[in-house]
Amino acid sequence: MEKPLISVIVPVYNVEKYIGRCLDSLMAQTYGNLEILLIDDASTDGSGGLCDRYAAQDPRVRAVHLTENRGVSHARNVGLEEARGSFVAFVDPDDYVALNMLERLYGRLLEENAGICVCDVEYVGFRGEMPSAREDLTFVGNCQDLMLAMQKKEIFMGLGGTLCQAEAAKKCGFPEDIHVGEDKMFLYQMDRYVDRVARVPEKLYYYVFREDSASHRTFGERRCTEAKELAYFCGEAREKFPQMLPLMAAKVLHVNVGLAVEAVKSREITGRARYAYLKEFHRDVRRFFSADALAHLDRKKIAAEVILLYISPELFWGVTALYKWVKRRVTGRD
């Protein structure tokens, strides 16, 4: 009996240098019955041509070229419309996957009679230290349990490395009016249609950190825009997924206080602009501050910074600047 078709959706935009490794890892999957949908989001480099070349090499690969760049969520939604499979997976074009990823995810999904199966992520090029995931946590529960396990750092995963029922995924889609956290909103919406989530406790998805990635830029207008979008996302969760509000509110607090610290340290902005940014972050912290949200923060230092910013942007600025000065005097580093 032939296994069901899996549709792998790859949103593509200006990744000419990276996409080859991604597609090679997908075309070599041990799970053979798949289609690979390359959604070219109006790339301006050679990515579109590469998509066509791969499609010409393998009938399982289809290239769809969009005429206007509208972002990764729109590209994924187009992929969902084009998908013919019973299951869908999402892979970003600058990442790559283990050759048995789809086979392991599908096998585990069947074992647990689940609607979603996830695997752990290996972070390639990450310069910090990552705590270890719980290898014994093979079954999570529902989507809410999954997100809580991620917040507790028991699981490290993203949308990549996720296999889910296509019918449920198409009902949810991706919100195109936000650009941060759209993958988490997708999972929250899936909670309406999927009762069980399974997990393969192996690092089968390789997330590549790129210096030129928009998500890794230094402090600036883009980062502040992300904070606003995350606050909007949390507002959506307040209405649609109230049980997840403390978790998402903690994320808002964490991101805003992190940006506030960067604003104080940044040499890119003037004092007046810095204060304007801090006031924005202060407003968002006040909007989503609660004891439950504080309890979901993973470090006491972050909670202390959140409380300072909650009290006033001036106090936060003063204490952070003083801490920076003392640290520089003692260690010689900012």
Helical fraction: 40-55%
Oligomer: single chain
- What fold name stands as the CATH topology of the largest domain? Spore Coat Polysaccharide Biosynthesis Protein SpsA, Chain A
* Name given to the CATH homologous superfamily of the largest domain: Spore Coat Polysaccharide Biosynthesis Protein SpsA, Chain A
Describe the structure.
The chain is α/β, with parallel strands linked by helices. The protein folds into two domains: 6-208, Spore Coat Polysaccharide Biosynthesis Protein SpsA, Chain A (Alpha-Beta Complex), CATH 3.90.550.10; 217-331, no CATH class. The chain has 13 helices and nine strands. Strands 1, 2, 3, 4, 5, 6, 7, 8 and 9 form a nine-stranded mixed β-sheet that branches. α8 runs parallel beside α10.
Throw out a few tags for this protein.
334 residues; alpha/beta; Spore Coat Polysaccharide Biosynthesis Protein SpsA, Chain A; 2 domains; 9-stranded mixed sheet
Write the layout of secondary structure elements.
Blueprint: E1 6-12, H1 19-27, E2 34-40, H2 47-57, E3 61-65, H3 72-82, E4 87-90, E5 96-97, H4 101-112, E6 116-124, E7 139-141, H5 143-151, E8 162-165, H6 166-172, H7 182-190, E9 197-208, H8 221-240, H9 245-265, H10 271-288, H11 291-295, H12 300-311, H13 313-331
Parallel strand pairs: 1-2, 1-4, 2-3, 6-9
Antiparallel strand pairs: 4-8, 5-9, 6-8, 7-9
Helix pairs in contact: 8-9, 8-10, 9-10, 9-12, 9-13, 10-12, 12-13
